[in-house]
């Protein structure tokens, strides 16, 4: 295991969408490992490193809220855009009044987590890359609140605030410290982009407010 980091993230709303829900958006109970990795990558990521989520601390009670809003039914396909760029007479406009539909979203509110993670060096690492270098870059950026893109909590309209948890700082204020075990069901672990975007799942058990995230077998699947 490389250098470990701890990052506290929080926000007013979050939606970590369950892929099995097609018609309406329904959030998982807590942040998924893949969403946590996305937050870390928005602060510091290079091809030379790969973030690995070790555990997730749930700091606030799990609360849901339902909203209903107007959305357009689809998006303009990349294929149509490419054909338009090639000079073909393709209509790229969308008529909102014809494609508008109402959809409900079951989302989380008032969320806060501490993400424990480390990174591993990849085959893309060059001679100028070292674990110390990338570790210090992440620490410096996290302490200053810097990011390459605004991190978000499942959906881009739900921005995430973040701050580094220093090594000497204790993690406290659990909402579930007194709950020995809470089964959160099967949860999306990550998507294997090297294998036709194959999704992998794991059984999320929260013990005293902490979810241990399984490691990878090396082939993209979680080690359960």
TrEMBL record:
Q: Name one GO biological process term.
A: defense response to virus
What Gene3D superfamilies does the entry give?
3.30.70.2660
Instruction: Please provide an example of a Pfam family that matches this protein in its UniProt record.
Output: Cas_Cas5d
GO molecular function terms noted in the UniProt entry:
endonuclease activity; hydrolase activity; RNA binding
Q: What is its EC number?
A: 3.1.-.-
Record keywords: Antiviral defense, Endonuclease, Hydrolase, Nuclease, RNA-binding
According to its UniProt entry, the function of this protein is described as: CRISPR (clustered regularly interspaced short palindromic repeat) is an adaptive immune system that provides protection against mobile genetic elements (viruses, transposable elements and conjugative plasmids). CRISPR clusters contain spacers, sequences complementary to antecedent mobile elements, and target invading nucleic acids. CRISPR clusters are transcribed and processed into CRISPR RNA (crRNA).
* Similarity remark: Belongs to the CRISPR-associated protein Cas5 family. Subtype I-C/Dvulg subfamily.
What's the protein called, per UniProt?
A: pre-crRNA processing endonuclease
Give the species: Paenibacillus sp. BIHB 4019
């Amino acid at each position: 295991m490389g250098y470990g980091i701890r990052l506290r993230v929080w926000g007013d709303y979050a939606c970590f969408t369950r892929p099995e829900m097609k018609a309406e958006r329904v959030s998982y109970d807590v942040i998924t490992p893949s969403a946590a990795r996305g937050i870390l990558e928005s602060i510091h990521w290079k091809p030379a490193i790969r973030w690995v989520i070790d555990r997730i601390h749930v700091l606030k009670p799990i609360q849901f809220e339902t909203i209903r809003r107007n959305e357009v039914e689809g998006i303009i396909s990349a294929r149509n855009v490419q054909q338009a760029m090639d000079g073909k007479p393709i209509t790229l406009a969308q008529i909102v009044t014809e494609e508008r539909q109402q959809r409900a979203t079951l989302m989380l509110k008032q969320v806060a987590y501490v993400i424990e993670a480390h990174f591993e060096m990849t085959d893309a690492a060059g001679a100028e890359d070292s674990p110390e270098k990338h570790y210090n870059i992440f620490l410096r950026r996290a302490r200053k609140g810097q990011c390459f893109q605004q991190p978000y909590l499942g959906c881009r309209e739900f921005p995430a605030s973040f701050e580094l948890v220093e090594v000497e700082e204790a993690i406290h204020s659990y909402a579930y410290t007194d709950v020995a075990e809470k089964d959160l069901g099967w949860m999306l672990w990550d998507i294997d982009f090297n294998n036709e975007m194959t999704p992998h799942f794991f059984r999320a058990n929260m013990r005293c407010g902490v979810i241990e995230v399984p490691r990878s077998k090396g082939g993209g699947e979680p080690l359960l």
